[in-house]
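Quick log. Single chain, no ligands specified.
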Amino acid sequence: MRSVRVRGRSVRVCEWLSGRGGLLRRAMVSLALAASLPFLAAIGDALPARASFDPSGYDFWVDSGMGPIKSRIFRAQDGNTRRVVYALDGLRARNDLSGWEIDTDIERVLTAWNINVVMPVGGESSFYSDWVAPSNTNGQTTPYTWETFLTRDLRNALAARLGFNPSGNGVFGLSMGGSAALVLAAYHPDQFRYAASYSGYLNISAPGMREGLRAALLDAGGYNIDSMWGPPWSELWLRNDPFVFAPLLRDNGTRLWISSGNGLPGPQDVVHTPMDAFNVTNAMGLETIALANTRAFEARMDSIGARNAVFIYTPDGIHSWHYWADEVYRMLPDLSANLG
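-> predicted structure:
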């Protein structure tokens, strides 16, 4: 565990890529993408840990511009309403339960630490963003408005109906949800004072990332990424790139926990069948891209003198739920100290 080092000045994306050491940075990102781009079409195809349904949670429905949206609520053991954290899913988020509930049991530990857990359900391929239009490639009729839902509709309903504190919350997510957690914290600092990204895509302006994400959204539900933030290099693409808005996270003083594996399988990733081997190989590629993105984001935070982030790089780790669950437990004392 370590904090980001300090250097004195802010740099733009193009300056970071072209300045001193820029050739090495471009090479690092490009090599990782060249090796792993075929796997981007399956972002969110993480290896499962275990399948479960936790009866201690309950459904919490809230109206939105997308229609009624369900979240799963797990109450803190001591009954407090002050300490609240949101858990965001990956690209292939389902409409019945969050992957966090299906494939982990983190809510049992978080609630034992007297933290209320909110798990929004759904949002496949959404990046938890407000889209500019419905996708014209899969019959979607209503555009996603996830950022508005999470920061207005759900937030207000939790406060009005459950008495949950609408300020000083935490938010964490994996993969798609990791970058979304940083977006929410950057633009809604009154709501989120703590944000964590596990294996997140935190440098979507890097070479090849837009093309890879386009393929990923088509593969995960047939979504047209142009309906999300408009054409590549639009202002909305830059608005949603953590690498670009990093100064906001510094200036807000948001406590950040950023982690990635190294793309190499560990003892938990036992291969029993050819399909397991395919999934492990796929998860290795995805984590390699996440690692390159996370390293780039760390360098960006370093360059602007940010002091509010912890970066964790595990000695092994692929795009898999058991690694993300382990990271929640590693983060928990820090999260608990910064909520409410």
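Residues 1-45 have pLDDT under 50 and may be disordered.
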